[in-house]
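BUG: 3D viewer hangs when loading the predicted structure for this chain

Environment: internal workstation, default settings.
Expected: structure renders.
Actual: progress bar stalls at 90%.

Input used:
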Amino acid sequence: MKITSWNIQHGEVYAAGTEVNRSAEIQRTVAAFNCDVLVLQEVDHLNERSNLEEQTIDFAEIIGAEHWAFAPSVWRKEEEWLDWPKSQSSDFPGLITKTSPSVQPGYGISIVSKLPVVKWERKELSKAFMGWWLPFTSDGVTKKYWVKDHARNALAAYLEDGTVIINSHLSWEPIFRNLQLSQLKRWANKIAKNKSLRVIIVGDLNISNSFDESVNSFRWRSLVKQLTFPVWKPDRQIDHFLARPGTKAKLEPTVASKISDHLPISITLQ
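Structure tokens produced before the viewer hung:
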């Protein structure tokens, strides 16, 4: 089973000084993954900045996947972004699937699968109550701005073969991203009590293994190493696959793209 994880930054183009056919570049990149399961972060749903695209559905169509779900972190209502927990109603579903659509603009995470999915689950993570300095690059120039964080969540796909893929995009704020990772692992541990299931944590965890921080723990280890950020000069890995000891995976060659500030990362589970 080949799994690709990619923070798509809502399909933003990163190619200073060159003309890029955005739609064609997305099509080329995603088709080149040739993956069975595509795990996405920073996904738009009917937002004006991304041409009102339903990006989860668009990416599913490119790889020919019948199974997909989008878990919004925030909804856009008029000119305001609302954290999903503050917006619970029939108009703001926790999951968008084929059987649970929504026309409300949103932003969040997705899983797209060619392999049959028997169940979807969503989990809320603690929200950072403080902001943090974030770098933004425009025309090759990077500046840092103080940004308030938004709600964070996780999305689990239970595949028919017994694999459970948990996708998340954790906070950039140092204290809360580690708290969220602990919550994510506790949820994964609970799922993994069923010994028939193989559980994989995937996504943009915003943590690079270093002296100060690590995604590794006694029960969860990073499967592969690849520098993934920033795309123009990668110097850290913040996009990860975590699994229980004994799980084996092969790192696949990455696919260079002019879309997003992250490199995609792909593995084949063995």
